[in-house]
Amino acid sequence: MKKFLQKLGKSFMLPVSILPVVSILFGIGYSLDFRGWGANSLIAAIFINAGLAVIDRISILFAVGIPVGLAKERDGSAALSGLAGFLVTTNLLSPKNVAMYQGIPVEQVNPAFAMYEKNVFVGIVIGIIVSFLYDRFSKTELPAALSFFSGRRLVPILTVLSAVFFSVFMYFVWPPLFSLLVSFGTAIVNLGPLGAGLYGFFNRLLIPTGLHHALNSVFWFDTIGIDDIGRFWGGRGELGITGRFMAGYFPIMMFGIPGAALAMYTTAKSDRKKAVGSMLLAGSLAAFVTGLTEPIEFLFMFLSPLLYLIHSLLTGISMYISALMRWTAGFNFSAGFIDWFFSSLTPMARKPVMLLLQGLFFFLLYFVIFRFFILKLNLKTPGREEEFVEYTDISGQREQVKDSDMRQAGGESRRMAEIIWEGLGGSENVKNFDYCATRIRLEVRDSDKADDDFIKSAGITNVVKTGKNTIQVIIGPRVQFVHDAMKKIAQDEEKV
After folding, report:
1. Is 436 an annotated catalytic residue?
2. In whole angstroms, what separates CA 91 from the centre of its chain?
3. Which long-range contacts (CB under 8 A, 24 or more apart) does 107-114 make?
4. CA proximity to 92, closest of 182, 30, 171, 190
5. What one-character DSSP code corresponds to residue 432?
6. What is the pLDDT along the chain (496 residues), one digit of tens a residue?
7. Distance set, CA 47 to CA 51, 82, 127, 237 (Å)
8. Contact between residue 371 and residue 263 where contact means Cβ atoms under 8 Å apart
9. Which residue of the set 436, 444, 450, 482 is catalytic?
10. What is the C-alpha end-to-end distance of the chain, expressed in Å?
11. How many CB atoms are closer than 10 A to CB 352?
12. Rounded CA gap, 287 and 154, in Å?
């Protein structure tokens, strides 16, 4: 189950990765026609409606994107199957058809079905179903008379049939489940700023498990009617209220995380600062500009649960403050400068500049707190490890080499991949692997055979053994290129 949840979390990255363009489209459109929302400008109307086309159909993106990321093979038939399954279940349970089944006017249909088509939960479940069907039946060979429908062509057919049964199940289950979700969301919303703070705290706390995506879908999307992202960018909310489940992240991701990085840099050994400085700077820039915080968070997430608990608490406090003061801004990807800039041009943004001032305060807060605990507890954050690491070279001879020299030698993606691959035990130990935004996830025969110190000598952030047969290699923004190089190495070994 833990492995599945990790893969599911990774699969969210594909549909979410398209969202940054939405903030750009809305930002340009609103800047051209700030009050008319396109009514006074044809160009503005084009940009705004292009953004709405994506944000109003986010559930489809999950139905299509999750099978591609979750299935063992990234194949177009998985995406096509996800789309087919989503169309079937949303049509069968549309308010019009539900009214026909029950013999009542459309106006009397349970509100749960009114938002069924835009429900991200439905897209996620369909995506999971499709990934299972693809892995199980994409290589199935049917009798000669039906051979045309064998293999990958069988998956969409089975998906449509599964969607029918899923719709019957949801017809009875979804209304009471929807009521429970509404009660949960309402309980948080009714807490006002405190509710926003609790949400922010649990969001960060759940990141290591990947379950934060499920929590986000309740508040960010139209799962139970909150739809903080959709209402903010669509200008359909309440000024100072809509966006409260996003605004408090900007001070943390744009300023707090870089503050933590600076604390780690200043506490690094003097002769190691140059080596770790570039890594921390790259992670800080990613956090500030795009809101991608994992490259920095994974530096201390497993090294010190206490530091990560503090990080989660500070996030909750930031969310509470911004909600209390009614300072709002929004994002489509994450709370970085790009989304802050374009969201500040929208009608729902309220005093977004104050979030930057709040961010400066949290920059200092993170720096002081992290520096104190790193020094007090002597935490081995980057630059504070032992200067020499022991590793086994290709010939099998064990040597001691300066970690900084090893990083310099492994500066290119190919060299990093070679070190990581060798440290993992090569094809004799690695069964399969894939990557997400910042890390390579591997299934291995025995995680104990992986040489953590040798792998880290490639200049990567961390090695996390999540089980006897699973390993995560935290790399950062260049993960795709290292992954591709590792894939090439694996393919070359197979040819030998």
Report:
1. yes
2. 29
3. 110/175, 110/178, 111/178, 112/174, 112/175, 112/178, 112/179, 113/174, 113/175
4. 171
5. E
6. 656 655 665 676 677 667 667 767 777 776 777 666 677 888 988 988 888 888 778 889 889 988 988 887 777 889 999 999 999 999 999 999 999 999 999 989 988 888 788 777 788 899 999 999 998 888 888 887 777 778 888 999 999 999 999 999 999 988 887 777 667 777 887 888 999 999 999 889 877 655 566 578 788 877 677 889 889 988 888 999 999 999 999 999 999 999 999 999 999 888 778 768 877 888 888 789 878 787 788 778 766 788 999 999 999 999 999 999 999 999 876 798 888 998 898 889 999 999 999 999 999 999 999 999 999 988 877 777 654 333 333 333 334 444 444 344 345 688 889 999 999 999 899 988 888 667 888 899 999 899 988 998 888 878 888 788 889 898 876 788 888 889 888 888 776 5
7. 6, 28, 29, 20
8. yes
9. 436
10. 35
11. 21
12. 43
Tokens coding 308: 């990560």
Q: Residue 389: in which H helix or E strand, if any?
A: strand 388-392
